[in-house]
# Entry
Amino acid sequence: MLTTDRLRLRPLTTNDADWWVHLHADEEVGRYVGHYTHAQATTRLHDIQQQWTERGHGLCAVELRTTGETIGRCGLNWWEQFQETEIGWTFARPHWGHGYATEAARAVLDWGFGPLGLDRITAMIHHGNTGSTAVAARLGFTPLREDTVLDRPCTVYALDR
# Structure
């Protein structure tokens, strides 16, 4: 669906449940985005597929173009309770520090502000997640408010078109 020099982003499906569980099983990853059982992952991925159908966007699997390996996820998520579209990114730890999150997120932002016509995109980052905070800063996000997401405090960052 979306491509960059190094990455391909495709919609996540319930077929990605095993990979999703594995990604979130890492303690450093799960610390900020939680851990999932297979049943929980399947439910979450079903919801993502439904969002693609209803809103025309959702979260994507991020694959290396050279090998096809799935290394993370990045995409847009609609939060009904906030009436906001959020960009999110999560990558497997061996792929941290290579610029993949920034590269994937730039492609998603271009898509969101371009063809999707969004006026504002938020990024909800749990306290202490310095890696994601740095990615948000590189992309031009600025703090909007403090909030609670998934029962944990976070800073909500925003970027306007």
User: Anything to note?
Assistant: Residues 19 and 70 are 8 Å apart (CA to CA). The chain has one domain: 2-160. The longest strand covers residues 70-79. The helical segments are 17-25, 27-33, 38-55, 100-113, 130-139.
